[in-house]
Amino acid sequence: MLSSTNQNQKPITVTINDKGNLQIGGCDMVELADKYGTPLYVMDEDTIRAICDDYKKSFSSYPKTNIMYASKALCTKAISKVLANEGLGFDTVSGGEIYTVYKAGADMTKVLFNGNNKSYEELELALDLGVGRISADNFYELALLNTIAQSKNKNVDILLRITPGIECHTHEYIQTGHLDSKFGFDLSQIDEAVELIQSEYTNLKLHGLHAHIGSQIFETSIYADEIDIICREVSRINNKFGLKLDEINIGGGIGVKYTNDDLPPSVYDIGEIIINKLNECIKKYSIEPPALFLEPGRSIISTSGITLYTVGSSKQVPNGRKYVSVDGGMADNPRPSLYDAKYFAQVANKKETTDVEKVTICGRYCESGDILIKDVELPELEEGDILCVYNTGAYNYSMAYNYNRVPRPAMVLVKDSMSDIIVERESYDDLMVHDNIPDRLK
Ligand code: LLP
Question: Is the pLDDT of residue 82 over 90?
Answer without folding.
Answer: yes
